[in-house]
Specification:
The chain is an alpha+beta fold. 22% of the residues lie in helices and 26% in strands.
C-alpha cells in the first residue's frame, strides 16, 4: 500500500490523464446529421428535425430587370391549398385542406404550410415579375388569400384562376400588375386519340376512353402599358401538362391541342404577342416540345444547356418548365436577363419523391423568368 506522500504523484498523474482525455473528446468535430432516408415516412417531421435545404439549381440571386422592360415569369408553387384562406403553422403531419374533385374521386388535399407559403412569397417578391403565371393553385380563393396575406405592396391587383377540371382541384392562375381580360379555358376538352390499355406496367384505368385535357390551359390577355400611352395586349396560354413517365402519349395529345388553340388565336390576332408557358412536364427534346416547335412556337430558352445547373427548373434535376413564344413575342425577349431563380432543395442523391421537404422549402419547381421590350 502506498504511503500518503507517495500517493500525490500518482493522483496528479491520474488527473492529468483524465484532463487530456476530456480535451481529446471535446476537440472532436461535431458529427454531421445523417441524410434523410429515401424510405422516410410520408408524415413530415417537425421543423427542428428537418435538414436545411441547399440551392443546387438556378441562380442564387435574380438578375436586375432592365429599365422599361416588362418581366414575365412562370412558377409551379406545388400543392398550394389553404384551409379557409389560412396557411397555419405545421410541425407534424399536414392536416387536410378540404375535399376536392368530383363524386368518388374526392380526396383530401394537404394545406400549404405557412412557412412554405412564406418561402413562395419571398421567392415571388425577389423575382419581381410584372406578370406571373402559376400552377398547382388550389382555387382563386386560395390565391387571393395568399396575395392579401403575403404579397402586400407588390401591386398584383389583377388575378385570374379558373377550375381546370383536375381531379385534385389544382388550377392554372395569373397574378398581374396590369388589367386582365379575355379569360377562358377548356376543361375536359376532347383531344385526338384514345387512352391505351397500359399505363406503364399497369393496366390503364382510362383504357379506350377519349383523351381529354387533364388540366385545361388558362387563356388570358394582359393589357401592357405602351410608350404611346396606349396598351399592348399580351396573351398567355398557361399550361400544366399531364405528369408521370407513362403519360407521354397524354402530354403529346395535350401539346397538340394547346398548339392548335394558341396557333389559331395567334393567326386571328396578327402581330399580337402570345406565350405558352407553365409546367410542361417534359424536357426540351421530348416529343411534346417538338410538336410545339413544328407548329411555329419558339422556346425562349432554346440555347439552354441542360447539363448546366443554372438552367434546371425542377428539384429532380430536369428542365420541365418553359416559356414558348410566337414571332411577335420572340422579338421582344431580352436574352441577357433570362434566368431561373433557385430555391432551397434536398442534397444531391436524396430521393426527391419521398424525402420530407427540408427547411427553407418553397416548391419542387423554380421560377422561369424573361424580360420583354416591345418596339415603339
Amino acid at each position: 500500500m502506498l504511503k500518503p506522500a507517495a500517493m500525490v504523484p500518482a493522483v496528479l498523474t491520474f488527473l492529468l490523464a483524465g484532463s487530456s482525455l476530456l480535451l481529446a473528446v471535446t476537440a472532436q468535430p461535431a458529427v454531421a446529421p445523417p441524410r434523410p432516408s429515401a424510405t422516410a415516412p410520408s408524415a413530415a417531421p417537425s421543423a427542428i428535425d428537418r435538414p436545411a435545404g441547399i440551392r443546387r439549381f438556378g441562380l442564387e440571386e435574380p438578375i436586375a430587370k432592365p429599365a422599361g422592360a416588362i418581366r414575365l415569369a412562370t412558377y409551379n408553387i406545388e400543392n398550394f391549398f389553404s384551409k379557409a384562406g389560412e396557411f397555419p403553422e405545421v410541425t407534424g403531419a399536414q392536416p387536410p385542406a378540404h375535399l376536392s374533385g368530383d363524386g368518388q374521386d374526392r380526396v383530401a388535399q394537404p394545406i400549404k404550410p405557412r412557412a412554405e407559403a412564406q418561402n413562395v412569397a419571398d421567392t415571388i417578391r425577389r423575382v419581381d415579375a410584372d406578370v406571373i403565371a402559376l400552377q398547382e393553385v388550389g382555387s382563386k380563393e386560395d390565391l387571393l388569400a395568399f396575395r392579401d396575406q403575403f404579397l402586400k405592396g407588390l401591386g398584383y391587383d389583377h388575378v385570374s384562376s379558373i377550375d381546370a377540371g383536375d381531379g385534385r382541384g389544382i388550377e392554372q392562375s395569373v397574378l398581374s400588375r396590369f388589367p386582365i381580360s379575355n379569360e377562358s379555358n377548356w376543361p375536359k376538352k376532347s383531344l385526338e386519340g384514345q387512352h391505351p390499355d397500359r399505363w406503364g406496367r399497369d393496366a390503364n384505368e382510362n383504357a379506350g376512353k377519349p383523351i381529354a385535357f387533364a388540366r385545361s390551359p388558362l387563356r388570358v390577355t394582359i393589357d401592357l402599358p405602351a410608350a404611346d400611352g396606349k396598351t399592348t395586349p399580351l396573351t398567355l396560354f398557361v399550361i400544366h401538362h399531364k405528369s408521370g413517365g407513362p403519360g407521354g402519349y397524354w402530354r403529346e395529345a395535350e401539346a397538340q391541342g394547346v398548339a392548335e388553340l394558341a396557333t389559331e388565336f395567334s393567326k386571328d390576332h396578327p402581330g399580337q404577342p402570345v406565350a405558352i408557358l407553365g409546367d410542361f412536364n417534359c424536357r426540351p427534346g421530348d416529343r411534346p416540345m417538338s410538336i410545339y416547335q413544328q407548329a411555329g412556337w419558339s422556346d425562349t430558352f432554346e440555347d439552354r444547356n441542360e447539363q448546366d445547373p443554372r438552367w434546371i427548373t425542377h428539384t429532380s434535376g430536369r428542365s420541365i418548365d418553359c416559356i414558348l413564344a410566337n414571332d411577335a413575342l420572340k422579338d421582344a425577349v431580352v436574352k441577357d436577363t433570362r434566368f431561373i431563380l433557385g430555391t432551397p432543395t434536398r442534397a444531391e442523391g436524396v430521393d426527391w419523391r419521398n424525402t420530407p421537404n427540408p427547411t427553407g422549402w418553397a416548391s419542387d419547381h423554380y421560377p422561369v423568368v424573361i424580360d420583354l421590350k416591345f418596339a415603339n
